[in-house]
Design a protein that fits this description.
Belongs to the RelE toxin family. This is Plasmid stabilization system protein ParE. Keywords: Toxin-antitoxin system. InterPro entries: RelE/ParE_toxin, RelE/ParE_toxin_dom_sf, TA_system_RelE-like_toxin. This protein has 100 residues and is α+β, with helices and mostly antiparallel strands. It has one domain: RelE-like (YaeB-like fold, 2-Layer Sandwich), CATH 3.30.2310.20. 31% of the residues lie in helices and 27% in strands. The protein has 2 helices and 4 strands; from the N terminus they run βααβββ. It has a 4-stranded mixed beta sheet. The two termini are 22 Å apart. The mean pLDDT is 91.
């Protein structure tokens, strides 16, 4: 069983996305955050369940998609490090996943 650890930057990005959604629909924002947390929690038992990002085919990174979010993480022995969260429509840049 792996421990899921969120980086500060990933939490900040998720918070920013939720705040933006909450401007129009606070309930939807709350639901999104809960769904993202539930989905990443499953990584404790299934750390390789995410797909390899199409933009980074030969990398150690994986991603989960919870519309409208992409959640990037990497597995590290007995931990799963959630490194970055972004909206689906944004273009991924490799520096966004710097070793946090």
């Amino acid at each position: 069983m792996a421990e899921v650890i969120w980086t500060e930057s990933a939490l900040q990005e998720l918070d920013a996305i939720a705040e933006y959604i909450a401007l129009d629909n606070p309930s939807a924002a709350s639901h999104l955050v809960q769904e993202v947390c539930d989905t990443t929690e499953r990584l404790e038992d299934f750390p390789q369940s995410g797909r390899i990002p199409p933009e980074l085919p030969d990398s150690v990174y994986r991603e989960l998609v919870v519309p409208p979010c992409r959640i990037f993480y990497r597995e590290d022995v007995s931990r799963v490090l959630v490194l970055y969260v972004m909206r689906e429509e944004r273009q991924l840049r490799a520096y966004m996943l710097g070793d946090s």
